[in-house]
Write a structure and sequence with these properties.
This protein has one helix and five strands. The chain has about 80 residues and is mainly β. It has one domain (about 1-75): Beta-grasp domain (Ubiquitin-like (UB roll)). The chain has a five-stranded mixed beta sheet with strand order 2-1-5-3-4, with no helix packed on it. The radius of gyration is 12 Å and the shape is globular. It starts with a strand and ends in a 6-residue tail after the last strand.
């Protein structure tokens, strides 16, 4: 299945050809979860804070479907 993915903040380091906030395509086997996507991209799970699937916050166990749009955010500090 093909997904549209967008990485934010320091997570762009796991997709060198992507800039923060830019979409890219990922192909995964049917039945893959968000955790499978994170693993496929080489992102340590501890670096993932929030994931949106089709604009809805979703846990790592969520099973993805063809055409889903996934946004992955790291913990963000600031003050």
């Amino acid at each position: 299945m093909q997904l549209t993915v967008r990485l934010y903040a320091n997570l762009v380091q796991y997709r060198p050809d992507s800039c923060s906030g830019r979409n890219f395509q990922v192909n995964l086997p049917d039945g893959s979860s968000i955790a499978d996507l994170v693993n496929h991209l080489g992102i340590p799970e501890g670096e993932v804070r929030i994931v949106f699937v089709n604009h809805i916050i979703s846990p790592l166990e969520t099973i993805l479907e063809e055409g889903d749009q996934v946004g992955i955010f790291s913990p963000i500090g600031g003050g």
